[in-house]
Amino acid sequence: VSQVPVAEGKSVQQTVELLARRLEALGAEKQGTFGVDCETYHTAGTIGTQGQTGKLMYVMHNSEYPLSCFALFENGPCLVADANFDTLMVKLKGFFQNAKANKIESRGTRYQYCDFLVKLGTVTMGPSARGISVEVEYCPCVIANDCWNLLMEFMQSFMGSHTPGIPSVFGAKHDSMYSPADTMVQYMELFNKIRKQQQVPVAGIR
Question: How does it assemble (predicted)?
Answer without folding.
Answer: Component of the Mediator complex.
